[in-house]
Design goal:
By secondary structure, the chain is an all-alpha fold. About 80% of the residues lie in helices and about 0% in strands.
Length: about 270
């Protein structure tokens, strides 16, 4: 009985050892795995914290960059507005300057015409030599003739803006005096009158008559310039450039009409 009980106890001990030994090994492996998992979890948490910190830092940098960009854009916008305003003001001043030069050129030509008329008439109504002519020098035929009252009246009507009447008077004068020395002058005034009436094609014909029929006239350069200006106002910039360029090519660079032609040519280019 004792031996039997011993055997039973021995077998139970062996079974217990058999059962407890593998379980213990598995428990150690489990504990090791859990330790590894905890280490990995800690590493993941540290990495997540680092990512959060980097994200916050990146947001802060982005915010600063956005603020600087907005500020820079605001400064650039203000500068651009100021530059645009200055450019507009310069364009307005340039337009006024060109118009003033045009008026001065026209007035200069008109003053010269009036001076010639006065010189031809003389203080006592007698003929006088043209400017620059030596005393006793022969004059071209008809140069000393008294200017027609119709022409003078037409010029006066042109300057006061009575264009319809001036047009009729210039045409009547040219009809009655087609070969008069003042015919080129009358044609130039007629062209300007027609342009003021927005009759561009007829004005160009009047200026072309001076260019084609009076190549030696001192009104030729004015006719070339005024033809270019008429084409410009009519919207034909290509022909306007051609006419302005003809003025620049044919006459000295210090001539008033040449300077005006160069300014208008630069503007329409």
């Amino acid at each position: 009985m004792t031996r039997s009980r011993f055997s039973i106890l021995f077998l139970a001990l062996v079974m217990m050892m058999a059962l407890t030994t593998p379980g213990s090994a598995a428990n150690k492996e489990y504990q090791q795995l859990m330790a590894d998992v905890r280490m990995l979890q800690e590493q993941v948490q540290r990495q997540q914290l680092a990512i959060v910190q980097l994200t916050d830092a990146l947001k802060a940098v982005t915010t600063k960059l956005d603020a600087q960009a907005d500020k820079s854009l605001g400064v650039l916008a203000e500068q651009k507005s100021a530059i645009d305003a200055m450019t507009g003001a310069l364009e307005v001043m340039k337009e006024k300057f060109i118009d003033t030069n045009d008026r001065l050129g026209t007035i200069t030509g008109d003053v010269a015409a009036i001076s010639r008329a006065l010189a031809q008439t003389g203080p006592a109504g007698g003929a006088m030599p043209p400017p620059g002519a030596a005393p006793g020098q022969a004059q071209p035929e008809g140069l000393g003739a008294q200017p027609s009252a119709i022409l003078q009246q037409a010029i006066s009507d042109y300057y006061i803006g009575n264009y319809s009447m001036a047009e009729t008077e210039f045409q009547q004068y040219l009809k009655d005096n087609p070969k008069a020395p003042s015919a080129p002058e009358a044609l130039v005034y007629l062209g300007q009158t027609l342009r003021a009436e927005r009759k561009f094609e007829e004005a160009i014909v009047a200026f072309a008559a001076v260019i084609d029929n009076y190549p030696g006239s001192n009104r030729l350069i004015e006719a070339l310039f005024q033809r270019g200006r008429t084409w410009e106002e009519a919207g034909d910039k290509a022909k306007a450039r051609e006419s302005y360029q003809a003025v620049i090519d044919k006459y000295p660079p210090d001539n008033t009409w040449v300077l005006q032609a160069a300014q208008r040519l630069a503007r329409i280019k």
